[in-house]
Amino acid sequence: MTFGKKLVILDRDGVVNVDSDAFVKSPDEWVAIPGSLEAIARLNQAGYRVVIASNQSGIGRGLFDMATLNAMHEKMHRAAAAVGGRIDAVFFCPHTAEDQCECRKPKPGLLQMIIERFEVDPAVTPVVGDALRDLQAGAALGFPTHLVLTGKGRKTLAAGGLPAGTKVHDDLKAFALTFLTSQDE
Ligand SMILES: O=P(O)(O)OC[C@@H](O)[C@H]1O[C@@H](OP(=O)(O)O)[C@@H](O)[C@@H](O)[C@@H]1O
Ligand SMILES: [Mg+2]
Ligand SMILES: [Zn+2]
């Protein structure tokens, strides 16, 4: 049993929704990964808040604007609610690598904001991603890291160099089942 605020941090593209090397640029292109929204609902039922930490350089690249990103997130929130799930917040970095901001993963800026906003203890707050940079951001602040094999996850696993102790799961649904079982011990 863990004490303190129960919260899980998810990467978006490749974890919640299908990713694309051409970026996810519109609500039509935002398609949930099968089982991911149900996994969010299952985490909520077990008392966990779910928040997202996402790199959205498509904004900085001019591929889509804030109104479109908000429309994508409106679709995501509605789709989660349709299966009884709730995403409490979406933290995103709109910058490109060239902007050298503090919030683009692998920098931990987004995760630091989440710690402050939700008063969570990183040591007991899982970070789930499909890219190495997602995990590096988590490891930088002492979050337990979890790789899912959806999105870029298989390539990430093959490339190696994961933060020590990273757990690997087929998808978000498998993560939720394993994580919640581990919390019962
Ligand atoms: O997985 P999250 O963090 O939720 O979002 C990733 C997306 O913003 C995009 O990130 C881009 O990386 P660059 O920003 O071009 O390095 C590319 O990997 C795209 O394929 C991907 O859709
Ligand atoms: Mg991703
Ligand atoms: Zn940024």
Automatic annotation (TrEMBL):
Annotated Pfam families: Hydrolase
Catalytic center residues: D11 (nucleophile), D13 (proton donor)
BP terms from Gene Ontology: carbohydrate metabolic process
Binding positions (Zn(2+)): C93, H95, C101, C103
Compartment(s) of residence: Cytoplasm
Cofactor: Zn(2+); Mg(2+)
GO CC terms of this entry: cytoplasm
Reaction(s) the record says it catalyses: D-glycero-beta-D-manno-heptose 1,7-bisphosphate + H2O = D-glycero-beta-D-manno-heptose 1-phosphate + phosphate
PANTHER family to which the protein is assigned, alphabetical: D-GLYCERO-BETA-D-MANNO-HEPTOSE-1,7-BISPHOSPHATE 7-PHOSPHATASE
Entry's family note: Belongs to the gmhB family.
Official protein name in the record: D,D-heptose 1,7-bisphosphate phosphatase
Natural source organism: Trinickia soli
